[in-house]
Amino acid sequence: MGSLRCAVDLCSTQRYRLFRSVCGARSGPGTVSMEKARLTPFPREQAATRICMVSSFATELLEIRSKEPSLHVLVIPGNPGIAAFYKDFVEALYENLGGQASITAIGHISHSQKDYEHGRFFSLHEQIDHKVDFIEQELQHTEQSIVLVGHSIGAYIGLEVFKRLQNKIKMFVGLYPFLKLNKNSVTQSAIGYIARSSLLSKGVSLFASFIRSLRPSITRGIVRRFLGPSWSVAAVDVACCHLLKYHTMRNVLFMAMTEFQKLTEEPDWTFVRAKEDKIAFLFGVDDHWGPLSHLEEISKRAPGVNLSVETEGHTHGYCCNEPGSFWVAEYIANLIKKQSLISNN
């Protein structure tokens, strides 16, 4: 059924918490017990998919609308920015918030099942503008508070959106954040090398579309082998239907190229310090996209930011399996409740 979780204050001067498994162990001094995560299937409200035109761009949304919302949570994905990957997470978060919040996961432009934009490529900057345009178009006149949740590069996007719409955003949470390049990451170096080459990007994208053209059982087998056995059946299907498209893969790599160019710069520490009471980050133990050295830097540059480390064994791609989705959803819900943005039932 999963393990109990504890939040342990590492020290009073470092304002971050370490979430660890304590199966068979007692809570010691300084620990705060949390509710056991549900790792088995449960009946829940189903998220619906729709296409929304945002500044003339077809945008895939995955959402659950609350009947009486006091809050709207906008989930910004990583790269690939496919909203369907977050289905379990969106549904679990809706339940953990007691149906008091509407939840929307917004896909990146042209990270979609259909090539709505006819082969056009979109940069990191254009994806940021897209999220700002969505909020101004769809949520501008709502009376509900808005919470931004950004995953991986979505955390960088979320911070930039927060900077532009400070009066609209009540809270920002970055999950396994990718905020700056990690020079020690072989994976990042390899992706950057491919993304910078138009020829290699075309080759990888053609290969991806070739894999999709195979018999479905073979395609799923290849995807599962490369992505790992921890991925859920649903996540594997999303990868087969959305990611293994030429236009999607080209956009994934083009966006990655622009990410790596931009993230050579330092984050805007002045803004982070100014809003530190409204910002939280969740890091993983062994995550090259958001290594713990970056957490340490945030704790020094903006000591008031809420920083946590997840050590339950979930990965950077937490949203691609149910245990990770459920765990992170409960983490987010607890943060929101502590901010008194919804009633704590």
Keywords:
single chain; 345 residues; alpha/beta; Rossmann fold; eleven-stranded mixed β-sheet; 40% helix; globular
Please name the fourth-level CATH homologous superfamily.
Alpha/Beta hydrolase fold, catalytic domain
Proper CATH architecture: 3-Layer(aba) Sandwich
Q: Please report the number of helical segments.
A: 11
Distance between the termini: 23 Å
- Report the count of strand segments: 11
Q: What is the name of the CATH topology?
A: Rossmann fold
- Unreliable runs, pLDDT <50, ≥5 residues? 1-17, 19-41
Summarize the main sheet. 11 strands, mixed
| CATH class division | Alpha Beta
Question: Structural class of the secondary structure composition?
Answer: alpha/beta
Number of domains: 1
Please report which band the strand proportion falls in: under 5%, 5-15%, 15-25%, 25-35%, 35-45% or over 45%.
15-25%
Measured as a percent range, the helix fraction is: 40-55%
Rg from alpha-carbon coordinates = 19 Å
Pfam family, one: LIDHydrolase
GO molecular function: lipase activity
InterPro entries: AB_hydrolase_fold, LDAH
Family: Belongs to the AB hydrolase superfamily. LDAH family.
Structure in words:
Belongs to the AB hydrolase superfamily. LDAH family. It is found in: Lipid droplet. Pfam families: LIDHydrolase. GO terms for molecular function: lipase activity. This is AB hydrolase-1 domain-containing protein. The protein is α/β, with parallel strands linked by helices and 345 residues long. It has 11 helices and 11 strands. Helix 5 runs antiparallel to helix 8 (246-262). Strands 3-1-2-11-10-9-8-6-7-5-4 form an 11-stranded mixed beta sheet, with helices on both faces. The chain starts with a strand and ends in a 7-residue tail after the last helix. Helices cover 40% and strands 19% of the residues. It has one domain (5-181, 262-338): Rossmann fold, CATH 3.40.50. Mean pLDDT is 88; it is low at 1-17 and 19-41. It has helices at residues 87-96, 124-139, 153-164, 186-196, 198-213, 216-227, 233-243, 246-262, 269-274, 292-301, 322-338, and strands at 5-9, 16-21, 31-34, 48-54, 57-64, 71-76, 101-106, 145-151, 169-175, 279-284, 306-310.
